[in-house]
Write a structure and sequence with these properties.
Elements (H helix, E strand, L loop, with lengths): L21 E10 L2 E11 L4 E5 L6 H8 L7 E6 L2 E2 L2 E4 L2 E4 L2 H8 L2 E4 L11 H13 L3 H14 L15 H14 L4 E5 L7 H16 L4 E5 L3 H7 L2 E6 L2 E6 L1 H6 L4 H15 L1
Parallel strand pairs: 3-10, 3-11, 8-9, 9-10
Antiparallel strand pairs: 1-2, 1-4, 4-5, 6-7, 11-12
Helix pairs in contact: 3-4, 3-5, 4-5, 5-6
């Protein structure tokens, strides 16, 4: 890729015989006159961990929200496990899918947000069990048993009966991750999940995410400014700038030997902040 900012399809060389879990083709998104995504192409394989980095306003969060169809995209195609997200295709044109169909596909792409969005009137256990009961139709006892297992996985066995107001920000975010896992999604989307946390709480959330990444079973797309996490946990790092993918590849290449001036300038911010 060159510094022109227009990338060819990313990821096709990885496990070429396996279809991608997420396939994004020439996706564009506008907010009024502002074009936020300018023809994104990206493949993410099953079990792969892809970290997306870039400055504020580069289109990272918008891309995640399009994958989850919290934001409709204007043109292009997004597929999750071979299924077109948000639309049907008729005569080469996109026709909006029904809300019930959108909700079904959205359930396959669980998203963890910057803000925890827990139900304040529910315990941690009930926050985690709610989705499987309500959306998946899982029996209450089975959902609660699974919720206890997931709370244990994120290190919160002793907080099952606590309400969000009784938890630290890091603990609330770990409950949110457990809640996403409870839906047994095909893809997990993480949107700057440590950005709202006090610095001393960031590590506990990243440790949970690193454990998920190391499990090799969870497909993860992570928008993050945590460069150490991207270096250590990602299979690939994608750098976005100005609504396009500028560079993508293994962490050692993208973070250790950036090819574009735009990425070098972006990474210098982190070097400067560490040295100050």
């Amino acid at each position: 890729m060159t510094d022109t900012g227009h990338a060819s399809t990313v990821g096709e060389a990885t496990a070429p015989n396996a279809p991608p879990m997420v396939r994004i083709r020439d996706v564009h998104k506008r907010f009024g006159a502002l074009e936020v995504l300018k023809g994104i192409d990206l493949d993410v394989r099953q079990g792969e961990v892809v970290c997306i980095i870039g400055a504020s306003g580069s289109g990272k969060t918008t891309l995640l929200r399009c994958i989850n169809f919290l934001e409709p995209y204007d043109s292009g195609r997004i597929y999750v496990d071979g299924e077109l997200v948000g639309y049907h295709e008729r005569g080469g044109r996109l026709v909006p899918a029904r809300e019930k169909e959108i909700a079904r596909v959205r359930a396959e792409t669980a998203m963890v947000f910057q803000q925890f969005n827990l139900f304040p009137h529910m315990t941690a256990l009930n926050n985690v069990a709610f989705g499987p009961i309500k959306v998946r139709g899982v029996a209450k006892d089975a959902a609660r048993e699974r919720a206890r297992e997931l709370l244990a996985r994120v290190g919160l066995s002793d907080k099952a009966d606590a309400y969000p107001a009784q938890l630290s920000g890091g603990q609330q975010q770990r409950v949110a991750i457990a809640r996403a896992l409870a839906m047994e999604p095909k893809v997990m989307l993480f949107d700057e999940v440590t950005s709202a946390l006090d610095p001393e709480l960031v590590g506990e959330v990243l440790a949970v995410m690193e454990d998920l990444a190391a499990s090799h079973g969870v497909t993860m797309i992570v928008v993050t400014h945590e460069m150490m996490f991207a270096r250590e946990a990602a299979d690939r790092v994608v750098f976005m700038d100005g609504g396009v993918i500028v560079e993508a590849g293994p962490p050692d290449e993208v973070l250790g030997a950036p090819r574009s001036d735009r990425l070098r300038a972006f990474l210098r911010r982190f070097t400067t902040s560490r040295g100050s």
